[in-house]
């Protein structure tokens, strides 16, 4: 989703084609988010940022084909000649968490310089009748929010925000009703049930579009189109401003492929006014 000349895009290209462990995916995700700073970080500093051990960073560099982390850092300095970003040193932990989310949104804005993947995903989803929207545990709120607004412009949105033995049954029902695609919101920690459900969705012929925290998320291998948006990790519980915003951007793009979207919105507004649903 990013321009090919950006530091983050060059890092993504470096990681592609490598089979990474969950710990290594965490390091890769951290490096992409801090692409401008990474060439100037020590292995200890990178390990601290990623929340892993220093030996894990060394093993990660070797997995990418380098002799060690110093060789990886030299390579990054050659291909990413950028100065590290200065950040205020007096921020408290709450301010730091907000700053991290602002950085995630900046990265998302840069990625959207190429709107092609979002528009491709929007066309796929707009054409599915019905449209199942999946999100479990931490991602349930994202799925609910998207489905709530999507139902205003799409004729048949089916929210799948509860796991259990009937989840795959509900996907089968959607397929029998004509569904051709599924939208998934996937956030850490990634439930095994989501990975299994996406595998089933692929088996029954659905095209899977996923909004995930990273291009290296476990759901990537079961996604036809993956749209990454980082989560904030500065607090005890992750924050997901960027995935939420990306979901709204995706919905906006879908409206362009739903010819009666504006008419549906106007109809809803008229009905809401007649029923007195909202106060001014």
TrEMBL record:
SUPFAM superfamilies: Homeodomain-like (SSF46689), SIS domain (SSF53697). It comes from Streptomyces thermoviolaceus subsp. thermoviolaceus. Gene3D superfamilies: Glucose-6-phosphate isomerase like protein, domain 1, Winged helix-like DNA-binding domain superfamily/Winged helix DNA-binding domain. This is MurR/RpiR family transcriptional regulator. Residues 7-83 form the HTH rpiR-type domain. PANTHER family: GLUCOKINASE (PTHR30514), RPIR-FAMILY TRANSCRIPTIONAL REGULATOR (PTHR30514:SF18). InterPro entries: Homeodomain-like_sf, HTH_RpiR, RpiR-like, SIS_dom_sf, WH-like_DNA-bd_sf. It holds the Pfam family HTH_6.
């Amino acid at each position: 989703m990013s321009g090919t000349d950006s530091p983050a895009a060059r890092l993504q290209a470096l990681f592609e084609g490598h089979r990474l462990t969950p710990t290594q995916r965490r390091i890769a995700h951290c490096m992409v988010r801090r692409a401008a700073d990474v060439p100037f970080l020590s292995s200890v500093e990178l390990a601290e940022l990623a929340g892993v051990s220093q030996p894990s960073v060394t093993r990660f560099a070797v997995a990418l084909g380098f002799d060690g982390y110093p060789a990886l850092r030299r390579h990054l300095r050659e291909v990413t000649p950028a100065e590290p970003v200065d950040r205020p040193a007096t921020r408290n932990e709450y301010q730091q968490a907000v700053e991290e989310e602002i950085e995630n949104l900046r990265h998302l804005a840069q990625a959207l310089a190429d709107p092609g993947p979002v528009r491709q995903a929007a066309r796929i989803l707009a054409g599915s009748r019905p449209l199942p929207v999946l999100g479990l545990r931490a991602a349930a709120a994202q799925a609910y929010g998207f489905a709530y607004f999507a139902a205003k412009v799409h004729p048949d949105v089916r929210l799948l925000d509860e796991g259990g033995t009937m989840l795959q049954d509900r996907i089968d029902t959607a397929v029998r009703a004509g569904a051709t695609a599924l939208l998934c919101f996937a956030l850490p920690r990634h439930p095994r049930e989501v990975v299994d459900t996406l595998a089933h969705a692929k088996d029954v012929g659905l095209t899977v579009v996923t909004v995930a925290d990273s291009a290296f998320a476990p759901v990537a291998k079961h996604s036809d189109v993956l749209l990454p948006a980082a989560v904030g990790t500065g607090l005890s519980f992750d924050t997901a401003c960027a995935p939420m915003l990306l979901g709204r951007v995706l919905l906006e793009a879908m409206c362009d492929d739903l010819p009666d979207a504006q008419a549906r919105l106007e109809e809803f507004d008229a009905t809401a006014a007649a029923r007195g649903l909202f106060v001014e």
